[in-house]
Known about the structure:
Oligomer: single chain
Largest sheet: 10 strands, mixed
Number of domains: 3
Radius of gyration: 23 Å
Shape: globular
CATH topology of the largest domain: D-Amino Acid Oxidase, Chain A, domain 2
CATH architecture of the largest domain: 2-Layer Sandwich
Strand content: 15-25%
Structural class: alpha+beta
CATH class of the largest domain: Alpha Beta
Number of strands: 18
Amino acid sequence: MTTFSIDRRDRDIDRLTSAEFDLLVVGGGITGAGVALDAATRGLSVGLVEKGDFATGTSSRSSRLIHGGLRYLRQREFGLVHEALRERQHLSEMAPHLVKPLPFLLPILVGSPFDDMKTALRAGLWLYDLAGGARGGRFHQRISMGESLAMSPALSQSKVLDGFIYWDAVNDDARTTLSVIRTAANRYDAAVVNYCEVLEVNPPRRHSTDEARVRIAARDVISDELLELRARAVMIASGVWSDKIAVADNRGQHPERIRPAKGIHVVVPRDQFPGDAATLLPVPGDDRFIFTIPWGGYTLIGTTDTDYDGPLDDPAADSDEIDYLLDTVNAWTSKPIGRSSVTSSFAGLRPLASAGTDEKTADMSRRHIVEAVAPRIGAVYGGKFTTWRSMAAEAVDFAGTDLGLGRLPRSVTADQLIDGAQTSESCTPTSALLESTVGEESAGRIYARYGSHARAIAALCEDPALRTPLAPGLDYLRAEAIYAARHEMAVTLDDLLTRRTRSSTDNWRVARASAAEVAALVAGELGWSHADRDVQVAEYIRATEQFDPKAAE
């Protein structure tokens, strides 16, 4: 059993303030998580701080895909596609319980650009296969109209000619991020703390000496205590917030390195757009397409790609963006999806590495940049969720060569099993243990979220009261909330309902209705008084207003 709890958080704060680390990572999204894991596996002492919860920003608001990016072939980003497909294979081996193969349907629709591009599409799909898309023996296929409709039955029969299938993968982005962080913490003793805000990073005064140290002023958001941390080097991996990290006496920082691009998704019940494959749908009048992605009892529809200049915290979908997605889907379906069917909407900000151009964000490269912003302080900008491992490896290489950490061993993360990956040491299949308590359907879903740690869920489910859903209409069990409080460093009710489970982004209204009951359930685990519970519920309601699609009207 892991020790990744709120008590562990308190101990790691003590470690961060009393010890000196080789590398301090600022940012607890997937990039920061990857940097912490990569550095720790190379023998460095590592600390990580995140001003909110782990994955609270972009890393819990993606399309939840692990993919090469078929559309990047049109932009001649062949190297990026090859890298992403290579990383997709690595991640599927590192975390097979989290990263699952998913078929993608590219339907040829009457009146769509795809109808006039069949030859080019087939050539592109062969190129995608050769670049790595066919890893695992899954090559694209041409399929008939009937087969296309069977895979995506919501499409209008009169508009479907035939289609192509190719393969990528799907994951729970927030859970993947958490699992990478837990691997660094539990297996390699990294000190990791959520709700710890960096106020200022101070470069060393004598950066050319071996004794040079970076001093970091921080604040424990929970206790409001001011903290002072020390490290030989710092790597800023804060996504769209990277430009906002204050570096004292810094004349080398690039304040405009990040160009945020907003992407939104809407969520509808699975019966509104059924099917077991993701579907690519062209946007009428726009040279791009959107995805519909099966997600348990729901379907995700996304995404947009537009410039964003608003507040970076808690972006929300606006009415025009929701209509853009629904209008695209309804252009090709036999039964239109109305706004009233949307159970949640969510928005994320892509941290695109700006090259100082005025091109559309949809046309900008998803490549990443690693550079020094001050002596012994580096930053990593841009990239894709799929390429987090290779980005992290490059950032740690840079910390060795450019930030004073010296010659480091090569990266070994491609050979790591991520927290929860089943090993040969497991004598009894975890799924069998689950099936005996929660049934076959729930067992499969829980295993896909927790892997070998699903054994702990099975043990909790021996209590019949914890075997029931958090609320009618949600797939998550009460046992999962208890587990999150004990073993996943959940600090707030929002952590539990938005990222440890995906209740808020699956069905905003049902999740909100369950808030008081879930707060009462975990109060004893997290030491909440009745007053604390009331505060948590109120803060959760405020935090999740962004998911209410009607608020955008």
